[in-house]
Specification:
- The structure is a single chain.
- By secondary structure, the chain is mostly helical.
- The chain is 58% helix and 5% strand.
- It is built from 7 helices and 2 strands; from the N terminus they run ααααββααα.
- A two-stranded antiparallel ribbon has the order 1-2.
- A hairpin with a 2-residue loop joins strand 1 and strand 2.
- The longest helix has 17 residues.
- The protein is elongated, with a radius of gyration of 20 Å.
- The N and C termini lie far apart (66 Å).
- The relative contact order is 0.10.
- The C terminus is likely disordered.
Length: 129
């Protein structure tokens, strides 16, 4: 496998691990490997054994095919195409209890109801004469 493919796989492992709020040591413990193995995978210095791909995908809550470099980074969800970050947010949301979901919904409502300061700076209103 070429160096670029190794780096893509490593980046995807790292992104998914961070999204799952895991350290390299946490992931290594789940998979029964040394933390150095996870470090090597993420740096693109080596690949996980093919027998570990399904375990790795399950631990990271991703599809095994997503870890492969020839797979698009976006995931099809209903009739929309979501980015990896959006998909991971949905997965986190699904793991929340009802109280946590309500709190998150309120936070989203507050954030969406406030004008975006950077937008108003880009398009300042004309000054009165």
């Amino acid at each position: 496998m070429d160096t670029e493919s190794l780096k893509i796989i490593g980046k995807r492992i790292q992104e998914a691990r961070i999204t799952c709020c895991m350290t390299q040591t946490d992931l290594a413990r789940i998979l029964g490997v040394k933390p150095q193995s996870v470090q090597h995978w993420e740096r693109g210095a080596s690949l996980p054994k093919s027998t570990r791909i399904h375990e790795l995908a399950e631990a990271l809550d991703v599809q095994p095919s997503w870890l492969l470099p020839n797979t698009d980074e976006q995931v099809d969800y209903s009739d929309e195409t979501l980015s990896f970050e959006e998909t991971m947010m949905i997965r986190k949301f699904r793991k929340m209890d009802l109280t946590q979901r309500d709190i998150l919904s309120e936070i989203a409502n507050v954030l969406l109801s406030h004008p975006n300061n950077t937008q108003s700076q880009k398009n300042p209103s004309p000054k009165p004469k």
